[in-house]
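Extended Data, record Fructose-1,6-bisphosphate aldolase
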Amino acid sequence: ARITLRQLLDHAAEHGYGVPAFNINNMEQGIAILEAAKETDSPVIIQASRGARSYAGDLLLGKLVEGLEVQYPTIPICMHQDHGNNEETCASAIRLGYDSVMMDGSLKADGSTPADYDYNVRITSDVTRMAHYVGVSVEGELGVLGSLETGMGEKEDGHGAEGVLSREQLLTDPDEAARFVAATKVDALAVAIGTSHGAYKFTQKPTGEVLAIDVIEKIHKRIPDTHLVMHGSSSVPEELLEIINKYGGAIPETYGVPVEEIQRGIRFGVRKVNIDTDLRLAVTAAVRKVLASNAKEFDPRKFLKPAIEEQKKLCKARYEQFGTAGNA
Ligand code: G3H
Ligand code: 13P
Ligand code: NA
Ligand code: ZN
């Protein structure tokens, strides 16, 4: 069954849990996410980036989710547009039957630079009006995802925006967040607290200086009824990096967001936790291991089945760690 983001996160807030939002690009990810949800009795958020939509194609991606819905009838599924960049991306997602859209007006439409506040309010309000008219939920974003270690803000392509930004410029301001939510009527708000997309978030296990969970606490106190979203929330498990590097990979030492910190965030109002990189690492670890150990293997099912299993393990762990389990 399908569920809007608003319905799902209202339930999560009422019961004090968080929901991982896993990115989807293909069938193996869909099976992994839903099998894990079934085994843990968890509701699901599946999100598609613009890149995912063009990779799989809107038609196939939509039919894949429809298929998952039929195959897992007891699991509530919220299909969400990740990082919509303008009204048209969100409008097309709504036409395709998505339950929720993110209008990321924190960046200009081409992803080149952090946008100004007024642009963000205007474009996000436009999307909220359109989406709410047809019962679709909206996530907005305020603040610049980026590194408090380097001061580099993130552009949409994952590379640094020009210039070094201050702590104030990078982190979401609680008062501005309150004004933004009142002006735009978003159902959920993505906040910037020092995380960034991809595997290279921190050069060592993050402290409170570079991962500002205290800012989440302040924002939550200011707008307790707004569901908060953490982007860039992969934990970059060391075990996966080890497998990848043991079987021919060369990923340098790097750290993600520790699960305990996400759990603290959930205590302070974080309800949606975006995870893409961890699934990518799981796939890469599984595929590398099979292919490096069996040089004669060429049946894709022989490495994609382990890729499903490795992703499923990761999904199950997050459903349990975030308290999602048991809430389907
Ligand atoms: O926000 C970034 C997500 O990890 C999606 O990445 O745009 O490469 O599909 P992508
Ligand atoms: P990660 O790169 O940490 O998995 O973040 C994904 C994300 O925020 C998608 O919007
Ligand atoms: Na941003
Ligand atoms: Zn994101």
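Summary. The radius of gyration is 19 Å.
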